[in-house]
Design goal:
688 residues; alpha/beta; GIY-YIG endonuclease; Rossmann fold; 7-stranded parallel beta sheet; 6-stranded parallel beta sheet; 18 helices; 27 strands; 33% helix
């Protein structure tokens, strides 16, 4: 019988969900380990792929591997199993999942055989950073509250027993969740285990990294997409070479090549940024739990405003609930005052008065509005014409500093004209307000104050976010204006006033999670106030003062909100009381996309009809919504339709998805006009 290393099973980072078989040349057999990268022919090209298994024989004619690029695996056995689970659950190609777990330097496609030597030298020739470390753990001197001690004791017990458990750490803003994280990490390190710490935003990694650095010195690595290609490679290699013990980063940190992981921390677990919006469409929080279970590691999900799904899981016993109901040092939560701004100015007299007080007292103010730009849309008063993107079915946002109308979906921009392109009228109105407009109004009201704006436009330049946050920390900034990137996680004692300019921006989003996101945003941004020695205040401006999400946020009443929102979700069979799958059908030919969507909908109807007959007794009827036009119908000149499935069990939904997509393949081949694409999103977050 031939050796089992005669043929290699290889996956590639391409949108094809299958494993390919290649013959291994005799000279490469000793290097052909699972998890190494290979250079192999793929169609008319040569690509880098990953060996995921071996076979002793092949029933079909196979091509040969050209070269093996690693002397040892870059994907270990644990990571192969982990990425395979993600591929199976989210119905995405295994090779794409593996590539998303790799640093950018291995994500290179080669098309010329002459480049093999150059690639191999680049891949294998880099040395890793090896630094002499002071490996002594600094002493934690802060006095814990009783609630912190109780929570930490339960976490430490599971770490000591090497027992997997998921904890939901529900702590109000300023309750000391980070201190619990640090001490839990110290416990894992005592046992010789590794720790992964995840945050939803790159800007949050900076502050958390500094907190951990004070305790654990240079036993840390940082991983996120904001690093340069070389920086990310160096950090990844330090982890791979077992030179560090703690990894801190955004959602991709869940793929850190750490071995013997004993603790995974997911901070701000409720944040939608943990969900990847392109393939593979995984949720970093959810797969962190999967990795934790595989490693027998403890997982901590931390938040001041837990997601409906996580809190539901704690109520049903799937997670263990830990509560930190009070701020440390007996600090009080900031009082929240609701100001109805119907018929008034966007900067109310009440908010203006409170800002003036802070300026006089040399205290800091944070103003939050979750829209970038100056005007959210531009309209001609004579004929009603609205400036819209030529590629997407959205209005253009005015950016005053550049005198441009910009699409926030595709990046299209055009210079603002003085006349209406439709009627040639001159009465042009700039409506709605974004961060730029608020900045202009605040500068006019407080001309002698130091004012900064922090949003995606201002932090594009490398290091700019750090500069602004340093200014807040050093109290050289009087007023900070920003979007949701300033709303979570940051701890700056000088901020005593938070102004929520308009709480309704998130409330008006046409999504069943709109109320939840509104409650979370209000509570999170309110929590930035009063974290120092002076009590904080919040002015919450809204057009809907009687909405339950606003009223519950005013009182920090999470349980009250959860109960009201839960009743609505359960009645309508939405998560957490059901599972969901979203199909997005898009293409450049409008009629072709519409026709395919209706055809695919009929395929689903046929399958669901039979499925529901068999599961009716199990009370797991499948519900289909659509096909219908997506809320944003066109993006980048591609028309979009949507179908949603809801059911109690994800397994039943995925069976339907698999059967339907198989049936759709033929129709896709026949409907090539318009380059139609079918995307599947398991557990979708964004239904826009």
């Amino acid at each position: 019988m031939e050796s089992s290393n005669n043929f290699a099973e290889v996956v590639f980072g391409v949108p094809i969900n299958r494993v390919f078989l290649y013959k291994i040349p005799e000279k490469l057999k000793s290097l052909s380990k699972k998890g190494v990268r290979v250079f192999a022919p793929f169609g008319r090209r040569n690509l880098i792929g990953y060996i995921v298994g071996h076979q002793d024989k092949a029933d079909i004619e196979t091509k040969e591997i050209i070269e093996i690029l690693d002397d040892k695996p870059v994907v270990n056995e644990e990571m192969l199993k982990f990425t395979r689970w993600i591929s199976d659950y989210y119905l995405c190609p295994w090779g794409e999942v593996i590539e998303s777990a790799m640093p950018e330097w291995v994500d290179v496609k080669i098309v010329n055989k002459k480049e093999i030597r150059k690639v191999k030298e680049r891949v294998m020739g880099h040395g890793s950073w090896v630094k002499e470390q002071d490996l002594q753990l600094a002493t934690c001197n802060l006095q814990l509250t009783t609630h912190q001690e109780n929570a930490l004791k339960k976490i430490q017990d599971k770490i000591e027993r090497n027992e997997h458990r998921v904890f939901l750490l529900h702590g109000v803003t300023g309750s000391g969740k980070t201190e619990v994280y640090i001490r839990a990490a110290a416990e894992a390190l005592k046992k010789g285990q590794k720790v992964i710490v995840m945050v939803p935003e790159i800007t949050l990694t900076l502050q958390l990294f500094q907190r951990f650095l004070k305790i654990f010195c240079n036993r840390l690595a940082i991983l996120h997409s904001g690093l340069t290609q070389r920086e990310r490679y160096n950090e990844w290699m330090k982890v791979r070479n077992n030179e560090i013990d703690i990894v801190i980063g955004a959602r991709s940190a869940v793929f850190a090549p750490s071995e013997n992981v004993g603790l995974i921390i997911v901070d701000e677990e409720h944040d939608t940024a943990y969900k990847q919006d392109t393939n593979p469409r995984y949720n970093g929080r959810d797969i962190a739990i999967v990795r934790g279970k595989a490693s027998e590691a403890v997982v901590i999900l931390g938040s001041a405003t837990p997601s409906m799904e996580s809190f539901y899981n704690s109520k049903t016993g799937k997670y263990e609930y830990l509560h930190l109901p009070d701020r440390i040092d007996k600090k009080t939560l900031p009082s929240i005052e609701i100001v109805d701004i119907k018929g008034g100015n966007i900067i109310s007299e009440r908010l203006k008065s409170e800002i003036e007080k802070r300026i006089e007292r040399k205290e800091q103010t944070l103003l939050f509005i979750n829209r970038r730009g100056s005007a959210t849309f531009i309209q001609c008063s004579d004929c009603g014409y609205v400036w819209r993107c030529k590629n997407c079915s959205v209005s253009l946002t005015h950016h005053k500093n550049d005198n441009l109308c910009v699409c926030h979906y595709c990046g299209y921009s055009e210079t603002v004209s003085d006349t209406c392109p439709q009627c040639k009228g001159y009465t042009i109105n700039y409506k709605g307000r974004g961060t730029q407009k608020i900045e202009d109004e605040i500068r006019a009201l407080f001309p002698n104050s130091n004012i900064e704006r922090m949003d995606r436009d201002t932090v594009r330049k490398r290091g700019e976010a750090g500069r602004i946050l340093k200014g807040i920390d050093e109290r050289s900034i009087d007023i900070l204006i920003g979007t949701q990137m300033i709303a979570k996680g940051h701890d700056y004692p000088g901020i005593t006033l938070v102004g929520i300019v308009s709480a309704d921006e998130s409330l008006n989003i046409p999504d069943f999670r709109a109320s939840e996101r509104t409650f979370q945003l209000i509570t999170q941004v309110a929590g930035r106030a009063g974290r120092g020695d002076i009590n904080g205040d919040v002015i919450l401006q809204t057009y809907n003062p009687d909405h339950y999400s606003v009223k519950c946020a005013k009182e920090y009443d999470f349980i009250g909100f959860y109960n009201q929102e839960g009743e609505l979700r359960e009645a309508l069979n939405y998560p957490p009381y059901s599972k969901m799958v979203s199909f997005k059908i898009e293409g450049s030919n409008e009629k072709g996309v519409e026709q395919f969507s209706h055809n695919f909908g009929m395929i689903l109807d046929e399958i669901i009809g039979g499925q529901n007959d068999s599961v009716r007794q199990a009370h797991d009827l499948i519900e289909k919504l659509g096909p219908s036009k997506a809320i944003i119908y066109k993006i980048r000149n591609r028309y979009r339709w949507q179908i949603i499935l809801k059911g109690r069990k994800i397994g039943n939904l995925k069976k339907i998805v698999s059967r339907a997509t198989e049936g759709a393949k033929t129709r896709l081949q026949k409907t090539s006009k318009g380059n139609i694409k079918l995307d599947i999103d398991i557990d979708p977050i964004n239904l826009m």
